[in-house]
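ok so I'm stuck.
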Amino acid sequence: MQPILMVQGLAKNFMLHEQGKRIPSCSEVFLDVWAGRLTALVGPTGAGKSSVLKCIYRTYLPSAGRILYRDQAGHVLDLARATEHEALRLRAGEIGFVTQFLHCLPRRSALNVVAEPLVAAGVDRAVARKRAGEMLSRLCVPERLWAVPPATFSGGEKQRINLARGLISRPRLLLLDEPTASLDPATTDRAVAVIQAMKTEGVAMLAIFHHPDLVARLADQVVELGQPSMTLAEKES
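replied:
not stuck anymore, here's the structure
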C-alpha cells in the first residue's frame, strides 16, 4: 500500500513587503499520510502546524517543497504546483478540511449547512438532509437547533456544526485543525467515535489536536515539526 499524501521539504514563509521582512512559519516538513490511518502533527504554538494543513489544502501557496497527493484514479499531483482549478476539484470530491472556526453563509439552517457538501457532490437533497440529521444527532446537536442559523449558536455548538459538515462527506483525505477544541468531554468522545469509524472505512487523516490524550487515542503516527516522524510506540519509548 502506498501513502495517499507525501509531504517533502515543505516550507511556508510570509512576506511583510512594506517592512522588507520575511516571517518563517514552517520549514523542512516531511510526512506521509496513509488510508485508514491518522497522522498527528504536533509542536509548540507558532511552529506552523496550521500552515502545513493550509498549504496542503492550498489555502496557502507553499514557499518550497512538494506535496504529492495520490488521487482516486491513482494519479499523483503535486499540490504545491497545482492550478486553482485542480485544487478546487480535489476539495469538492477528495480532500476535506475541518478548521477551528465555522464559516458559512448567513441565515442558512444548521441542517442545510451540514448537508451542503453532499448536495454539492450530487447527492439528492432529501437524502443529504437525512444524513445531515444523523450526523448532528451523533454529535449531540439538539433537533430544535437544526432549523436555526449557526450564527446564533455558542462556540461549542458552532464547532459541532463545523465538525459535522467536515465529516459527513467521507473524503479520501481529511485535514483536522483542532476539531474538538471547543467541545465538552461527552461530545468529544462522540467525535472521537466518528473519527475512529472513518479510519475503519479507509479515510486518511492528518490532524492537529489540542490535548495530548487525543493524540494517544487516535494517532497511528506522530510527526513533530523539525523532528523525524515516529509511531506512538516509538514516541513513548
